Amino acid sequence: MSSPLFPVFADLRGRAVLVVGGGTVALRKVTALIDAGALVRVGAPTLNVELTALAAQGRIEHLNGTFAPRWLDGAWLAIAATDDDEVNRAVAQAGEAQRIWVNVVDDAQASSVQIPARVDRGPVQIAISSAGAAPMLARHLREQLETQLDESLGELASLLGRERHRIRARHPQLGERRRFFDRLLSGAVPRLLRQRQRLAAEREFSALLNAPAATARGSVALVGAGPGDPGLLTLRALRVLNEADVILHDRLVSDDVLQLVRRDAQRIEVGKQAGNHHATQDRIHELMLEHARAGKRVVRLKGGDPFVFGRGGEELEVLRAHGIDYEVVPGITAALACAAYAGVPLTHRDHAQSVRLVTAHARDSMDSIDWRALAQERQTLAVYMGVAGLDRLSERLIEHGRAASTPFALVENGSRASQRVITGTLADLAQRAQAHDVQSPALLIVGEVAALAGTLHWFGDAPLGAPATATVAEAA
């Protein structure tokens, strides 16, 4: 087995670099080198349109002709990026003779240096190399890191660079300085920079720098977990879950989502049980305050979206009243996710020009609904509810003018592997739900668009009630 490569970040500012080749691959290398401040020479008989423009602007020097070893004179680095293996190897051999590092694109054996896949966040850069053995793997890892590292990291690094001397003066001992950085990086400064509140971030930084070493400030993030498929989490939600010390999660947050939580985070289930919602909500408030006051980063993890039938507004009011820092990370609410995974467009030019989101979890909420407005045609109803009230809901809608033949789609465990979709008409809604033993969580979609589930479904099994042979292709 060959020895591993030694990683190095090179300062190419004002230093000559030769790129041999005039095509698309060469352009990609040239662009990165210009960004790094290198003096770029491009050697090739012809250049593509973009490289020709760069030469005309004086941003690169064009060496016209076929490769000659003298092109390497004064160069610190060379890149062979032609489609001719003989030319590329000639560049590598000439570079070896002159002790100049040479990268031959897509030829690890001929290269004396590798150009890694790179994640760029201003002063912060992450380089990934497979030593040329698996460049597509390196690219895949780079794409994953791109989604996990917030763009504000660059601003954070710049702030720390500007304040480096103050930090060292205030915390001259290494151990003390490390503890300061732990507090800084887990505190409000990164969050404020991500929220584009630069002045507030600088004030928070100064306050933290001058604070006693033991000072710790907690915070709470209200995070929407979506309907269950972990792939529907936002990038920000994933980052927050990996930074949290304490997770207060609803009962219906899927196990797949909880698997993404930081391994050493404390998990506390705070799911509400029937008949005890108020007491449980008060306990949630107490837990948020308790852990945030202890200096911990708390995530209140809610199914769907925190602000859609999730009492997120009440929780923010409590946090604000007690001076606790907070942020909100939206999630994909059940109406959007369940409809999409069932193949039901919530609006459609021919069928529905509006959508109403309705909750009907209890008899009291049933009595307060404006049934006449909900019964109007050419609109879609997305009903968040327990399945026990389906009979009353269908009766009320029909009583107030909605046709008994109006289609429905009842989506159980939307977006999860166990998803089921039951379709029918409003007249037989309760009967069909009972026949198929539909359980919570389930979302009801009422309206003409619900009939499209039979032809537009794409996820999981075909809807129960639709023809088994229906396909997306037939719908088209």
From TrEMBL:
Metabolic or biological pathway: Porphyrin-containing compound metabolism; siroheme biosynthesis; precorrin-2 from uroporphyrinogen III: step 1/1; Cofactor biosynthesis; adenosylcobalamin biosynthesis; sirohydrochlorin from precorrin-2: step 1/1; Cofactor biosynthesis; adenosylcobalamin biosynthesis; precorrin-2 from uroporphyrinogen III: step 1/1; Porphyrin-containing compound metabolism; siroheme biosynthesis; siroheme from sirohydrochlorin: step 1/1
CDD domains to which the protein is assigned, alphabetical: SUMT
Ranges of residues in domain Sirohaem synthase dimerisation: 152-209
Protein's name in the database: Siroheme synthase
Domain Tetrapyrrole methylase residues, every copy: 220-430
Annotated GO MF terms: precorrin-2 dehydrogenase activity; sirohydrochlorin ferrochelatase activity; uroporphyrin-III C-methyltransferase activity
Gene name per UniProt: cysG
Superkingdom classification of source: Bacteria
Pfam families linked: CysG_dimeriser, NAD_binding_7, Sirohm_synth_M, TP_methylase
Region (Uroporphyrinogen-III C-methyltransferase): 218-476
List of residues binding S-adenosyl-L-methionine: 227, 303-305, 308, 333-334, 385, 414
Binding-site positions, NAD(+): 24-25, 45-46
Family: In the N-terminal section; belongs to the precorrin-2 dehydrogenase / sirohydrochlorin ferrochelatase family. Belongs to the precorrin methyltransferase family.
InterPro entries: 4pyrrol_Mease, 4pyrrol_Methylase_sf, 4pyrrole_Mease_sub1, 4pyrrole_Mease_sub2, CobA/CysG_C, NAD(P)-bd_dom_sf, Siro_Cobalamin_biosynth, Sirohaem_synt_dimer_dom_sf
Known catalytic reactions: siroheme + 2 H(+) = sirohydrochlorin + Fe(2+); uroporphyrinogen III + 2 S-adenosyl-L-methionine = precorrin-2 + 2 S-adenosyl-L-homocysteine + H(+); precorrin-2 + NAD(+) = sirohydrochlorin + NADH + 2 H(+)
Annotated PROSITE patterns: SUMT_1, SUMT_2
EC number assigned by the record: 2.1.1.107, 1.3.1.76, 4.99.1.4
Any Gene Ontology biological process: methylation
Role summary: Then it catalyzes the NAD-dependent ring dehydrogenation of precorrin-2 to yield sirohydrochlorin. Finally, it catalyzes the ferrochelation of sirohydrochlorin to yield siroheme.
Gene3D superfamilies: Cobalt-precorrin-4 Transmethylase, Domain 1, Methyltransferase, Cobalt-precorrin-4 Transmethylase, Domain 2, NAD(P)-binding Rossmann-like Domain, Sirohaem synthase, dimerisation domain, Siroheme synthase, domain 2
Species whose genome carries this gene: Lysobacter stagni
Keyword entries, A-Z: Cobalamin biosynthesis, Lyase, Methyltransferase, Multifunctional enzyme, NAD, Oxidoreductase, Phosphoprotein, Porphyrin biosynthesis, S-adenosyl-L-methionine, Transferase
Record-listed Phosphoserine modification sites: 130
